């Protein structure tokens, strides 16, 4: 009997993943198997592991804290931001998690402002956020050297997640064929400056990616364009966990999944009417590409989670002065 019930659940989940049972019609879509509306579908399974979705075989879609640097890629409206929101919603409940948003499209991460150290949207703010992150990396590096330690741990201070949505915009790559740096271009001077600063940003982000992990700094990089032009190899090679939503071309699969992992994943293997559907691969939990679907958190639920967890947010001053959760106790903020 139990066996039959289990079989039935697995079949229902599969059909749901394939979009057979119900199809989303936009932000008002009804809950779907594997993508039901809500916080309670994000569950803490252990001290450092959460589930925020379901795999094609009915298992939990795991997100480990802090996990590797992550790439979240896929075409527009494939569910990248929702997946990022699900990860942030899970980790936001942890006191040892700090977040910095880099949101040049200005649309995605602002809802998290109460829980974030900073959500940078203007170019000046973005450069400031990157400068501060690099400074934090150096301060932590010196601290470890002085202490004779080699690796960051939670007892030394929080993990900082730097969330970049959309990476192509950040590095000043035109993805729409308009040369924003051309003389008399319709777009503003800021983009011109952005282009000039882009290579500096790439260098800084590459160094955060390369050295940051051992210093408690993790990147979550989201892009519609997982191509070699957009994602420099120095950065790409550091993003060990790959989450690939729907893509339409082979290069996107190759770059999105990583070398040697693309064989089992085909472009268009996630249907267009299944937002949130994804392939995940990484070293900790998914050695082979695994198909899954993220829990769907509607945007209007985010401010509630952000406000409820706002007391756990970190300021740049607290981070840069190497405060720990223990230091913060009793301190009024
Ligand atoms: N897991 C999910 N289950 C059901 N519907 C989803 C899921 N994820 C996303 N959607 C639907 O797809 C829409 C687009 O998702 P989202 O904004 O995350 O896409 P995106 O890939 O970030 O797009 P863009 O590149 O344009 O920013 C959402 O508004 C929602 O209606
Ligand atoms: Mg998005």
Structural key phrases:
alpha/beta, Rossmann fold, eleven-stranded mixed sheet, 10 helices, 33% helix, binds adenosine-5'-triphosphate, binds magnesium ion
Short précis:
This protein is an alpha/beta fold and 333 residues long. It contains 10 helices and 11 strands. Strand 10 and strand 11 form a beta hairpin.
What does this structure look like?
The chain is an alpha/beta fold. It has a single domain, classed as P-loop containing nucleotide triphosphate hydrolases (Rossmann fold). Helix content is 33%, strand content 17%. It has ten helices and eleven strands. Strands 1, 2, 3, 4, 5, 6, 7, 8, 9, 10 and 11 form an eleven-stranded mixed beta sheet that branches. Strand 10 and strand 11 form a beta hairpin. Helix 3 runs parallel beside helix 5. The longest helix is centred in the middle third of the chain and has 25 residues. The chain is globular. The structure holds adenosine-5'-triphosphate and magnesium ion (MG). Adenosine-5'-triphosphate binds next to helix 2 and strand 11.
